[in-house]
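Lab meeting, item 3. Inverse folding demo.
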C-alpha cells in the first residue's frame, strides 16, 4: 500500500461503492474463512443494496459479484488482523491489514478508505542506518527490514585507524558523505531515522546530518554483521519510544494551535476548514465514526446517529472518513490516535493553515 494507490482509491466512484470491513482472525464471529461466513456477508450486502432506492437496476448484482471476486483473491492462510473489501460497478479490491478493523458495511459514492489510511499511517516507516567501515541502509516498515541497494548504499569508507586527529578527520569526511547520500534518499521519501553504531560513529554521523533528518533513536554497539531479523528486534523498542513521544507531541501541537487560533475540534467545526483546503494536520481517534448529509449547496452537515442507520440520497455514512479524504487531497497530514486520546478535543481535531 502506497500513497499513490490510496489517492486513487479515494476518488469518487459510480454508485454504489461498497466497502466491507471485517476482522480476519479465525476466532472472530464473522469468519470469512469458510463458505458459510462468506455467504452471510454477501447476503447482508445484498440486503443493504436492495433496500437502498438509490441503487440502479442491475448494479446490486454486479457489486455482489465484485465482492465475490475480491474474496476469491484473499489468501486467508496469511495471518492478518483485518480485511477490507471494495466493490463498485466495474471494479473490486481486497486488502489484508496488520491492524484490527471495526466490522461494518458502507454504501456510498466513494470507498471508505479510513482503515487503509490508518494502516499506511500507523505502519511506521523508517530508515535504519548501520554505521561501520561499510555503512548499510535498511528500509524499515513496521517489523520488517529490507536492505537498500540503491542511492549509493552500501557505502564503503576508510578503515578505522589509530584514533588520532588524522583518522578522526577521515571519519568525519566519510560520515558527511553518508549523510549526503541519506539526505537524497530521505528527500524522496521522508521518514524518521534510527542510527546504529558505536558511539564515536554516531557522533560523527549526527554532526554531519544535523538539521537534515528526524532522529528517532539510537542503537548502540557494532552491528556490522547483523541481519534483518536481529536489527528489527533491536529497532522495536526504539520505535515504540519514538511513537510514545510522537503522541505527546500531537497533543502539544493541538494546544499550540488552539493558542494561535489555528485550531478546530469536533466534527461540526472541522468540516468547513477541511473542505476549504485549510487543513494542515488532522488528528482523529481510530474508533470515531459519524454520519452526515450533503446540504443543497454541497456542504457536509454532521447529524446525530450511527453510520448505516440513516438513509437518504444525500447521506454520507461516515463523515469522518470523508474529512480524512479531503484533508489528504489538499496535502494535509492525518494522524490516528487511540480511542479516548482526544477526549478534550471531541474525538477529532484539526490544525489549520490560516
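The presenter then showed the designed sequence:
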Amino acid at each position: 500500500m502506497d500513497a499513490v494507490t490510496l489517492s486513487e482509491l479515494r476518488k469518487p466512484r459510480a454508485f454504489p461503492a461498497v466497502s466491507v470491513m471485517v476482522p480476519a482472525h479465525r476466532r472472530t464471529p464473522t469468519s470469512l474463512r469458510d463458505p458459510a461466513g462468506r455467504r452471510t456477508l454477501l447476503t447482508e450486502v445484498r440486503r443493504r443494496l436492495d433496500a437502498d432506492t438509490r441503487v440502479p437496476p442491475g448494479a446490486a448484482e454486479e457489486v455482489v459479484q465484485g465482492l465475490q471476486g475480491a474474496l476469491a483473491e484473499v489468501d486467508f492462510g496469511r495471518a492478518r488482523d483485518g480485511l477490507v473489501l471494495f466493490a463498485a460497478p466495474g471494479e473490486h479490491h481486497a486488502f489484508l491489514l496488520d491492524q484490527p478493523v471495526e466490522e461494518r458495511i458502507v454504501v456510498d459514492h466513494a470507498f471508505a478508505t479510513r482503515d487503509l489510511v490508518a494502516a499506511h499511517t500507523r505502519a511506521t516507516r523508517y530508515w535504519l542506518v548501520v554505521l561501520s567501515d561499510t555503512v548499510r541502509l535498511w528500509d524499515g516498515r513496521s517489523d520488517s527490514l529490507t536492505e537498500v541497494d540503491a542511492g549509493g548504499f552500501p557505502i564503503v569508507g576508510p578503515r578505522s585507524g589509530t584514533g588520532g586527529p588524522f583518522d578522526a578527520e577521515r571519519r568525519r569526511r566519510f560520515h558527511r558523505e553518508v549523510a549526503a547520500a541519506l539526505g537524497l534518499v530521505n528527500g524522496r521519501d521522508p521518514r524518521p531515522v534510527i542510527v546504529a553504531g558505536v558511539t564515536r560513529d554516531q557522533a560523527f554521523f549526527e554532526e554531519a546530518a544535523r538539521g537534515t533528518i528526524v532522529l528517532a533513536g539510537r542503537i548502540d554497539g557494532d552491528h556490522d554483521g547483523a541481519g534483518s531479523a536481529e536489527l528489527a528486534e533491536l529497532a522495536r523498542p526504539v520505535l515504540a519510544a519514538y511513537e510514545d513521544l510522537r503522541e505527546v507531541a500531537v497533543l502539544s501541537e493541538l494546544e499550540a494551535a488552539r493558542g494561535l487560533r489555528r485550531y478546530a475540534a469536533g466534527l461540526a467545526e472541522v468540516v468547513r476548514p477541511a473542505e476549504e483546503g485549510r487543513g494542515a494536520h488532522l488528528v482523529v481517534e481510530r474508533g470515531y465514526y459519524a454520519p452526515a448529509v450533503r446540504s443543497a449547496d454541497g456542504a457536509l452537515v454532521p447529524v446525530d446517529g450511527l453510520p448505516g442507520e440513516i438513509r437518504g440520497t444525500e447521506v454520507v455514512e461516515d463523515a469522518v472518513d470523508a474529512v480524512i479524504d479531503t484533508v489528504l487531497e489538499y496535502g494535509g497530514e492525518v494522524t490516528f490516535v487511540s480511542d479516548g486520546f482526544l477526549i478534550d478535543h471531541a474525538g477529532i481535531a484539526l490544525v489549520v493553515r490560516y
